[in-house]
Inverse folding.
């Protein structure tokens, strides 16, 4: 029987996604997110950031790579994996990463989050008025 290994996180990208392809042609999209958590320490609240590497495989990674930009908020669903290796000094090394099965784009990035919507020249803030001589339909 398999053990449960499911992760769901919301965070912001710490860098633009990197898209590459393995020799078989499968897309690999790699990025990292920061997930903030508030903690109370000595009657004062502080934010603590946790950083996670994320890998998104296949067509989904290929399609989303262009939208995964630094500062963009995303929801990630996936599983944890652990890579183990021996470095050049002979020391055992490991890292845990998230292999995403779903990524949902949320909101805007921090950089463009405060921008006003772009308006066409000549547009005003007034709602459009009906043409003269036409009746307004109440439904």
């Amino acid at each position: 029987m398999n053990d449960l290994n499911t992760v769901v996180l919301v965070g912001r990208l710490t860098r633009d996604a990197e898209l590459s392809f393995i020799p078989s042609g499968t897309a690999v999209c790699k990025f990292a997110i920061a997930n903030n958590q508030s903690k109370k320490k000595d009657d004062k609240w502080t934010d603590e950031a946790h950083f996670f590497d994320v890998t998104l495989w296949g067509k989904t990674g290929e399609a989303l790579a262009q939208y995964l930009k630094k500062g963009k908020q995303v929801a990630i669903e996936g599983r944890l994996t652990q890579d183990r290796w021996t470095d050049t000094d002979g020391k055992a090394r490991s890292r845990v990463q998230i292999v995403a099965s779903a990524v949902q784009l949320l909101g805007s990035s921090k950089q463009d989050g405060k921008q006003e919507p772009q308006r066409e020249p000549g547009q005003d803030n007034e709602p459009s008025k009906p043409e003269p001589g036409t009746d307004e339909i109440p439904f």
